[in-house]
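dude i think i finally got it to work??
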Amino acid sequence: MQDEYRTVAHAGVHETEVNRSRFLCALAPAATEREAQEFIASVRKEHADATHNCWAYVVGADAGVQKASDDGEPGGTAGVPMLQMLLRRDMRYVVAVVTRYYGGVKLGAGGLIRAYGGAVGEALDALGTRTRRRFRLGTVTVDHQRAGKVENDLRSTGRAVREVRYGEQVTIEIGLPDSEVDAFRAWLADSTAGTARFEPGGEAYGDA
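look at this
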């Protein structure tokens, strides 16, 4: 698994103009391929009168799913440059649709490649990105007497506290980088006089 990846901060649209052609790049997060396809369909519907609605998406932290479409533009001049821009920026779980309204001036293959790739790059800059980092999930089990201090210490040291449950004992779900697991065990044993337990779990991604 990738240790980290980048994705778009939020959905949005950024417009550029090249030789009187308008290029509207719509970006959105997409957790699954289906979400990406639904977003593409919604943009196509909104801009049904456009000359082209070209798209590209990358799904999976390891970029396992990569697809693109030129939507009628000459082969390799739209979808592929869009996809390459997403990959060059290490973007994952993201979909881009570039809507073109033709302005009467032909751009040529090189011009189209620059326009479509550039539209995605400018949209990423305008809308902003965020980094997601891989975390090891884990559960801290501690008695009620120490739970409040442990939770406060976790939060004050920047640990990702995901959930706190109260029962006979208190369980605190956390996330931390794999490289810090051993140091965390030592810290927990020291701060609770060895009374707390830590059970590592699976993996997930969270904001860095």
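The first strand starts at residue 4 and ends at 8.
im so relieved honestly
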